Amino acid sequence: GDSVTQMEGPVTLSEEAFLTINCTYTATGYPSLFWYVQYPGEGLQLLLKATKADDKGSNKGFEATYRKETTSFHLEKGSVQVSDSAVYFCALSEGRGSTLGRLYFGRGTQLTVWP
Amino acid sequence: DAGVTQSPTHLIKTRGQQVTLRCSPKSGHDTVSWYQQALGQGPQFIFQYYEEEERQRGNFPDRFSGHQFPNYSSELNVNALLLGDSALYLCASSTRTGNPYEQYFGPGTRLTVT
Predict the structure, then answer these.
(1) Residue B100 pLDDT grade (very low, low, confident, very high; cuts 50, 70, 90)
(2) What is the rounded distance in angstroms from the CA atom of residue B47 to the CA atom of residue B45?
(3) Residue A66 touches partner B, C-beta closer than 8 Å
(4) CA A92 to chain centre
(5) Is the per-residue pLDDT at B4 higher than 90?
(6) pLDDT value at residue B98
(7) Cα separation values, A86 from A15, A106, A110, B44, Å
(8) Which residue of A has its CA nearest to B46?
(9) Nearest to B42 among A43, A51, A107 (CB)
């Protein structure tokens, strides 16, 4: 079945450091891939997405490239800020009718950025 | 434009009781999905409603049931509560006529079962 595996946390970085959070997936079809962010006490916010192989999603300085050959969608940011401290979830959604719109999430990676 | 709203924000129940959680989707959205997020875990899909019918269901027992109303709002009902039902319950809305991949999440309802 479909699943997402993401890098175990927590991740602790100093401000302006480079961030990578690894995500790999298993899917039977051609899924769309997402990164969601969850700030303390809040729901999930869509950070970025990619709907087909080689697409690069980007938002707020974060980037992730859909790599079909390695079934990966790693999240990167060149210079993190304290305000980026949150939990990050990698997710996938199949485009098939019976599972349309259903999201499969990884376990989440807690990121803490120190000034 | 109001986003996805959920009520109540927090809820404390006792084992064996029943609970109803409510969700209003984002304006223009017709599909509502419910997720359970246990502490330290990723959200797990419970079910999805479209046109007032359950369209998909995750691996959850029949104690979890739902409903969608003509105005697209939705309820999640959980019967015979167990301690393990303590979690953050998230509602997400989307549209089948637009981009079904883009789901907007509400802030969640924190359920504590004692």
Answers:
(1) low
(2) 6
(3) no
(4) 9
(5) yes
(6) 61
(7) 14, 15, 6, 19
(8) A102
(9) A107
Q: Is A82 on the interface with B (CB under 8 A)?
A: no
- A8 interface with B at CB cutoff 8 Å: no
Q: What percent of chain A has pLDDT over 90?
A: 76
A40 touches chain B (CB under 8 A): no
Residue A51 half-sphere exposure, CB side, CA atoms within 13 Å? 6
β-pairing, A3-6 with A86-93? unpaired
Strands A109-114, B5-7: pairing is: unpaired
pLDDT above 90 as % of chain B: 83
Decide if pLDDT at B97 tops 80: no
Assess contact for B17 and B85: CB atoms under 8 A.
no
pLDDT in tens, A98-107: 566 789 999 9
Other residues' Cβ atoms within 10 Å of the Cβ of residue A60:
12
CA distance B24 to B27: 9
Q: From A2, A9, A17, select the one nearest A104 (Cα to Cα).
A: A2
At A61, list the tokens. 């300085």
Residues belonging to chain B = 114
